[in-house]
Amino acid sequence: MKKIWSDNMEWSELYNRKSKPRIAEIKAYMSPDAFEAFERFNEKLLNDYNLGYVLPRYNKQKGWFYSYGRSGYILIKEVTFNSDYFSVEDIHIHNVDNLSKAIDLVDTKFHDGFLVRYAEFCEARRKRMKENRLQKSKSTELKYKRNCKWCPKVSRSDIKRLYNSDTKGMLDQELLEEVGLAIYVRCKTSKEIFDLMEQGKIKCLACGEILSGEGELTCKCGLKYTYHAYRKSYRENNMPSGAATPIFNKFVKNWDIARSSQVKMLLIDNLIHEFHVSEISGTRGRPVGVNLIQGTKSQIVKLLCDLASGNV
Ligand SMILES: [Zn+2]
Q1: What distance in angstroms lies between residue 88's CA and the mean position of ligand 1's atoms?
Q2: What is the predicted pLDDT for the residue at 6?
Q3: Which of 172, 240, 295, 299 could be bridged to 190 by S-S, CB 3.0 to 4.6 A?
Q4: pTM listed for this prediction
Q5: C-alpha to C-alpha distance for 265 and 272, rounded to whole angstroms
Q6: pLDDT (0 to 100) of residue 9
């Protein structure tokens, strides 16, 4: 190869930050003896220690320099170049005859717990990658969950206003219809969706299209879902289901045929005072209000207490 630089030009001037030298260029720059030793050094590290060079880096003073290690974990921080020698940290190697000094350094460092530290490094990296994957899948899941807009629960203040009007003997008919219908739609939709999910299907919550399949599902209206995120969102939103399902179904059936306001009010009153009862142990669990009324469990329990004591 033709030398394109003057013989006294420094390595760091020759290849600047923007021009990383290839191995042929290192060869052209160094004396044949020094390059032969450098090649031998590379072979030895690879064959005897399974070490290769990682991430060549640049600084102004040294120019491009090499580090040696295993899969990104470094044992020898700096191998730098001069025209008639290369340096392994502070040891200058002019030819194969004094290569052993550099190999001794590598050997000492290698046997000073390198493999243990390397294993720890790999383990930490594995954990980090797992954590990253988890974060990524969580944020993807969130994206799908945002498309799950379930029919709304009833507000606590609406329930209070309704009971208030009833207590005063002036039942708010309009509010009664509104609250009853919201509960009715939520119970009915929930059952329909639960039955679909049991068959591996989901219903688009914007346009009603039925979708099924693996992975990302794109509805004709443009919304995207996954079955998994959909089902999770259904559960997290406390859509009416689970042990109290017969209670919700009964409400739907009775609301369909109820005519008088008194009956409708009674249906709502009976419903929101029900509880999930374990089929196995028979123990009373959460009030079904958590499936129908906005707020935390304790806010709903307090509301039910207030209603019972007439304190609304
Ligand atoms: Zn749709």
Answers
A1: 64
A2: 47
A3: 240
A4: 0.64
A5: 11
A6: 67
Give the model's pLDDT for residue 302.
Answer: 93
User: Kind and range of the H or E element at 19?
Assistant: none
**Are the C-beta atoms of residues 30 and 15 closer than 8 Å to each other?**
no
Alpha carbon distance 85, 183 (integer Å): 84
Distance separating alpha carbons of residues 169 and 162, to the nearest angstrom:
11
| Residue 12 CB-half CA count within 13 A | 9
Q: Based on the number of CB atoms within 10 Å of its own CB, is 78 exposed (0-12), middle (13-18) or buried (19 or more)?
A: middle
Q: What integer pLDDT is reported at residue 243 of this predicted model?
A: 86
Ligand 1 centroid to Cα of residue 219, in Å, is: 5
Q: What is the mean pLDDT of residues 144-165?
A: 96
Q: Quote the CA–CA distance of 157 and 154 in Å, as a whole number.
A: 9
Q: Is the dihedral of CA 150, 154, 156, 158 positive or negative?
A: positive
- Rounded percentage of the chain residues whose pLDDT exceeds 90: 79
CA of residue 208 to ligand 1 center, whole Å: 6
Q: What are the pLDDT digits (tens) for 198-223?
A: 999 999 999 999 999 999 999 999 99
Distance CA 205, CA 228 (A): 15
Residue 279: is its pLDDT beyond 90? no
Cα(84) to ligand 1 centroid in Å equals: 72
Residues with CB under 5 Å of ion ligand 1 are: 204, 206-207, 209, 219, 221
